[in-house]
Amino acid sequence: MKIDLTDTTAGEINKALVKGRRAIGTPAVGMVLTLVIVTDEENAYDALKAANDASREHPSRTLVVIKRVSRTPRDRTSSRMDAEVRVGVEAGTGETVVLRLYGEVSDHADSVVLPLLLPDAPVVVWWPVNAPLDPAEDPLGALAQRRVTDTYAAEQPVRELSARAAAYTPGDTDLSWTRITPWRSMLAAALDQVDCAVRAVEVEGEEFNPSCELLAMWLADRLDVPVRRSLSAGPGLTAVRMETSRGPIVLDRADGSLATLTIEGQPARAVALKRRDTAELIAEELRRLDPDDTYASALRYGVERLNPQAAEPEPEREAAKAPAKKAAAKRAPAKKAAAK
């Protein structure tokens, strides 16, 4: 069931939620948390679909906050809120409210969201794109116990990791970290099988992929050994190679779905290590509402310590290479003349 409200208020939205529950015959509220999604119109559909899929595991009230861009002076002066209230099949196993904010009200989204939160239930705020540099200081982020960002969606993902480390507050997490949970589990299990000392590690994956950097930072932080970051064509993470006192341990995934685990003295094993969709990632993050100390420790290790050039964006690298390219261009005519 879907109820459309134009130029509405939080009170009218709450009334529509009660009306919708009664209409479908489920007046009782059995939701465990409030999930607030802050996004734009372009990414709202995908984010809401992922949240609805995750609600099968975590029944929740989902509030989608879309701040509409004012295109004319008249739009900037007019302030209103439109809403879609969805209950029943269209809202997964919970309730969904899509809020479109226009004008000045978009600067006070926290005041709009606050009356719609479930009483005495945890709040999780998720920014699929355009996350603030300091989520805990954001007015909406201040309402939440957990704040979920996605560094992979940033223009400069690796540099964004440095900003996340500087602004980290207990309760912050990132889907780039969630993506490497199977890798961390597999590597930890591999090391449990062999009594050895790890001497060095190589992490191979796409350039400017924050999950690759986070995995390398986690290994460097946990094992206290040198970790080298190498590049591949992807997709995503492709391999981790550990040099140990008992021989190499290699976890290699070339196709993005099936990996091969090789341990010295044991037969190679094929392990499922597929790339997971957003619904699985957000469902994993909703399972825990306590601070992730392991993520915090890995993040604070620092991408700069891992690779001093990793946080440098591509345009700046090209600018740094420009003088060398010019000098090579000047030498080229002299070489041609000598050849003649």
Automatic annotation (TrEMBL):
Boundaries of every Glucose-6-phosphate dehydrogenase assembly protein OpcA N-terminal domain copy: 51-165
Region (Disordered): 306-340
Biased composition (Basic residues): 323-340
Pfam families: OpcA_G6PD_assem, OpcA_G6PD_C
Span of domain Glucose-6-phosphate dehydrogenase assembly protein OpcA C-terminal: 170-299
Protein name per its UniProtKB record: OpcA protein
Organism for this UniProt entry: Streptomyces bungoensis
InterPro entries membership: G6PDH_assembly_OpcA, OpcA_G6PD_C, OpcA_G6PD_N
